[in-house]
Design a protein that fits this description.
Shape of chain A: globular
Distance between the termini of chain B: 25 Å
Bound molecules: adenosine-5'-diphosphate, magnesium ion
Largest sheet of chain B: 11 strands, mixed
Shape of chain B: globular
Number of domains of chain A: 1
Number of helices of chain A: 10
CATH superfamily of chain A: P-loop containing nucleotide triphosphate hydrolases
Oligomer: heterodimer
Helix content of chain A: 25-40%
Number of strands of chain B: 23
Number of strands of chain A: 12
Structural class of chain B: alpha/beta
Order of helices and strands of chain A: EEEHEEHEEHHHEHEHEHEEHH
Strand content of chain B: 25-35%
């Protein structure tokens, strides 16, 4: 079943059109990679799906589980299962990571009409997940992302993904700024979350990440459009030939 | 609409709708006629059954006040106050001396109940205290003095405090029962001639709290006073005096609310703290006077003089304030570091929204040797408000080894508000070390979106970020009040209805 349907999407930022009619369909259980040179509109697409203010959708639509996503507030989208792992996770001084996780999780559950987690259940869950991601407990006591290394920030994103159990995960440049070891830990965390009911959109500039998170489909973006789609081999092809062929298109 | 823009829109709509404490209590009250004269000063003194020396003290202050002018140096604007258009005394009826809670007008008790203050813990009140062993040990006791308009209506836990030797009572009672202490200390920190509002207060104050902690005693519970203005056009001029004798310790908290009114109301309190050798006073304030409506109409003018005197060696005074209310706040809780090795602290959260104007800060006056002070100020401005930190740190010629650390952080929400930092630093000897740090930042669009992407509403996101910003100061509040303050901070900034 189609989980996410982006149809002929046109988006402007400050009067300038960035996405010029983008179409993409992601079914449950699938992992899609979106590749493309810098400035091709990958992050813009992820922000529009998540509902970040400042983007004007001038045409097209986005359906999520058949519902009009663009009609929903961003927090409502989160509660419905849209998760965006940010390329640059922000720091929130003075707010302990543990407090943040709990506040967010309970906000989502409340929006869905579910009961809040009890303290022991919540702690148990956080401990399990953070252990598998190699996140020490004292990191959770620190302010959200404050003084975290690049790898720790990305692991914190994956931790949240695991806790919130979204049905759509969008990972924007998860590999940026990570060394191989950090990348492997984060990618293992993501792979553990692959499931038949959950889809992922993995945005990356480099093919490297796709050695660790192997996609079912690969799309190439250039200048605000998907210019080519294919199976996972397309990524290797790109690695060899580069993006220049699409730049001229 | 961008997130910040939306927040700005939301905060514009708040205050009137958001001010949860804006109800009026319907009780009869007895007022002095409007306006101020020697007759009114005498009337107040008479109502309080005061001794002659007290009346004399008031009259001297009044005569002095007639020669003084309102200060204009603060960054606040308001129409000229007509001091003859104010009631200087209002007492809820029945006004006979109250010895137990049963005698208090139930309407007043209901008011305090609505405020959610510990007075409602009837089972814990004096006379109806639980028997030994019945008490919940997890719940710490808090003794409360409730001041309604100008009169103290109830003080709890008197007996238990008395056992420890601690005196905690309305100052009007202390003037009669402990004249030697009051005469010795009243006006010794804030002299009657100190400033326009303090002098006015000295002439007309009608009640407030008095605390004396004897040598070597650690006060067995938190002491707390709740002030509420109820009457229309009534000024509230409370006077608080706290003395910590040698080697003693006390933690004191004040809370304030007022009903919604179209007109502005004047509040000019004076608080004096004295610590002798090795003593410590921790004074916390959660100020939530009515801030005025969304057009800037009404609200309390909060012109307050608070000062502590570390008179003894190795003594310490610590001010913590959470200021969310009032149309105008003019307030500089200060420390005179007279004793050698004494220490002063000022921790402040000042939130302004709508048309609120805050000009607040502290003075740390280093007189003794090796004195130290610490200032942590967090200002948050939203709506069309103006938020100024004004601080003075001075070291006297003899104050060798004086040390100060100051950190002032301001957070702006929206682009129609202003935050200002005005630090004055003066060192008259070369061995003083003063450090000053200041930052001003706007609440980040990206941080808000991050929180919202994780499921928080706009309001929850702002509340969370701001509470993180003020965390260092919140931690200084007694546990019981930190949670309350945290909620208050969220309410005063969010668009959600409380
Ligand atoms: N807030 C913004 N204001 C103006 N231009 C923007 C903004 N965000 C993105 N753009 C422009 O949109 C284009 C696509 O950017 P982006 O989506 O970040 O690309 P990618 O993630 O593929 O590198 C770029 O040309 C970029 O400069
Ligand atoms: Mg990008």
């Amino acid at each position: 079943m189609a989980l996410l349907e982006v149809k002929d999407l046109k988006v402007r930022v400050e009067e300038r059109e960035i996405l010029h009619g983008l179409t993409l369909t992601v079914n449950e259980g699938e992992v899609h990679a979106i590749m493309g040179p810098n400035g091709s509109g990958k992050s813009t697409l992820s922000h529009v799906i998540a509902g970040k203010p400042g983007y004007e959708v001038t045409d097209g639509q986005i359906l999520f589980k058949g519902e009009d996503l663009l009609e929903m507030d961003p927090d409502e989208r989160a509660a419905k299962g849209v998760f965006l792992a940010f390329q640059y996770p922000v720091e929130i001084p003075g707010v302990a990571t543990m407090t943040f996780l709990r506040t967010a999780l309970n906000a989502q559950r409340k929006a869905r009409g579910e009961s809040e987690y009890s303290t022991p259940d919540f702690l148990k869950k956080v401990r399990e997940v953070s252990k598998s991601l190699n996140i020490p407990q004292d990191m959770l006591k620190r302010g959200v992302n404050v003084g975290f290394s690049g790898g720790e920030k990305k692991r914190n994103e994956v931790l949240q993904m695991a806790l919130f159990e979204p049905s759509l995960c969008i990972l924007d440049e998860m590999d940026s700024g990570l060394d191989i070891d950090a990348l492997r830990i984060a990618a293992d965390g993501v792979n553990a979350l692959r499931s038949p009911g959950r889809a992922m959109v993995v945005i990356t500039h480099y093919q490297r990440l796709l050695n660790y998170i192997v996609p079912d489909f690969v799309h190439v973006m250039s200048r605000g459009r998907v210019v080519k789609s294919g199976a996972k081999d397309l990524a290797l092809e790109l690695e060899a030939s580069g993006y220049t062929q699409f730049e001229d298109a | 609409m961008p997130a910040v823009q939306e927040t700005v829109e939301r905060v514009k709509r708040i205050d009137v709708d958001q001010y949860r404490y804006g109800f009026e209590t319907l009780i009869d009250s007895e007022k002095a006629p409007k306006g101020l004269s020697e007759e009114i000063v005498k009337f107040i003194s008479q109502k309080k059954n005061e001794p002659a020396w007290m009346l004399q003290w008031r009259l001297e202050a009044y005569r002095r006040w007639l020669t003084m002018r309102e200060p204009t140096w603060a960054r606040v604007e308001y129409p000229k106050i007509d001091f003859q258009d104010i009631y200087y005394y209002a007492a809820p009826k029945p006004k006979k001396a109250v010895s137990s809670l049963d005698e208090i007008d139930p309407e007043i008790l209901k008011t305090y109940e609505k405020l959610g203050i510990p007075l409602r813990e009837v089972a814990m009140l004096e006379g109806v205290e639980p028997k030994v062993g019945e008490e919940d040990p997890a719940r710490r006791k808090i003794a409360v003095d409730a001041v309604f308009d100008s009169v103290s209506v109830a003080t709890t836990f008197k007996a238990e405090l008395k056992k420890a030797g601690v005196i905690f009572m309305p100052i009007s009672e202390a003037i009669r029962e402990h004249p030697e202490l009051v005469q010795k200390y009243l006006g010794s920190v804030v002299p009657t001639s100190d400033n326009f509002y303090a002098t006015l207060n000295s002439a007309v104050f009608s009640d407030g709290s008095f605390v004396y902690v004897p040598p070597g005693v650690r006060c067995p519970m938190e002491l707390s006073t709740y002030f509420r203005i109820n009457e229309r056009n009534t000024g509230q001029f409370e006077r608080t005096l706290i003395i910590a004798d040698k080697g003693s310790y006390v933690s004191y908290l004040e809370g304030c609310t007022a009903p919604q009114r179209d007109e502005n109301q004047l509040h000019a309190a004076v608080v004096e703290l004295v610590t002798l050798d090795d003593a410590e006073i921790k004074y916390s304030t959660v100020q939530n006077w009515y801030p005025g409506n969304s057009e800037g109409k009404g609200g309390i003018y909060n012109f307050v003089t608070k000062r502590g005197d570390c008179r003894g060696n190795n003594s310490k005074i610590s001010w913590t304030q959470v200021e969310t209310g009032s149309a105008i706040t003019w307030k500089y809780p200060s420390c005179i570091l007279r004793g050698d090795n004494s220490r002063g602290e000022f921790y402040s959260i000042a939130i302004s929204n709508g048309f609120q104007q805050v000009d607040s800060g502290t003075k740390m006056i280093h007189l003794g040797k090796n004195t130290s002070s610490r200032i942590i100020s967090k200002g948050i401005a939203a709506g069309k408000s103006q938020n100024t930190y004004r601080g003075l740190v001075t070291a006297h010629r003899k104050a060798t080894g004086a040390r100060n650390f100051t950190a002032c952080d301001s957070l702006l929400i929206g682009d129609k508000c202003g935050a200002h930092t005005v630090p004055y630093i003066e060192a008259k000897n070369s061995s003083a070390t003063f450090e000053h740090e200041a930052t001003t930042s706007k609440i980040s669009e990206d941080v808000l979106f991050y929180c919202i992407q994780r499921g928080l509403s706009q309001e929850e996101a702002v509340g969370l970020v701001v509470n993180g910003f003020v965390k260092d100061v919140l931690q200084q509040l007694p546990m019981e009040f930190a949670v309350e303050a945290q909620k208050l901070i969220s309410i005063s900034l969010e668009g959600s209805v409380g």
